[in-house]
Amino acid sequence: MQLDEFDRKIIAALREDARMPVAQVAERAALSATPVSRRIKRLEDEGVIRGYAPVLDPRKLGLELEAYVLINLNAHIDENIARFEQAIAENPHVIACHAVTGDMDYLVRVMARNVEHLSQITLRTLLRIPGVRDVKSIIVLETVKETQPVPLD
């Protein structure tokens, strides 16, 4: 879908505050409220805007540690992949999982209370998923940049 300048301004305003009143979004987009409402509805209907969610501060919830875990499966058979992906989907501390190219099969983003908790998640959960061969963890020391991942260029 092609986004025009008005769509980009609307999305930028909603990224800043998804609860922003339509009149305020309209002001930022230099349109009146009615066309902005129609554009937002179209962006939602076409799946460009997939939803709205609060942005949580993990530290305020006791999750002080973020890590990326690289995982290899011992065999790339459908049963192993299905079991692994089901276990990942059910793990509340896994906030993202990507099948990747290179030496590892999956890149998993994990939020934990501390190093001991990460160890429990890694050794007692991820490594014990049937079909998992190898697990390597990378602990985040500092986040330099983090934005909503879809650029509007």
From TrEMBL:
GO MF annotation terms: sequence-specific DNA binding
Signal sequence region: none
Family matches, as Pfam families: AsnC_trans_reg (PF01037), HTH_24 (PF13412)
Keywords: DNA-binding, Transcription, Transcription regulation
GO biological process: regulation of DNA-templated transcription; response to amino acid
Keyword Transcription regulation: yes
Record domain HTH asnC-type: where: 3-64
CDD domains: HTH_ARSR
Listed GO CC annotations: cytosol
PROSITE patterns xref list: HTH_ASNC_2 (PS50956)
Name of the protein described by the UniProt record: AsnC family transcriptional regulator
Source organism of this protein record: Novosphingobium barchaimii LL02
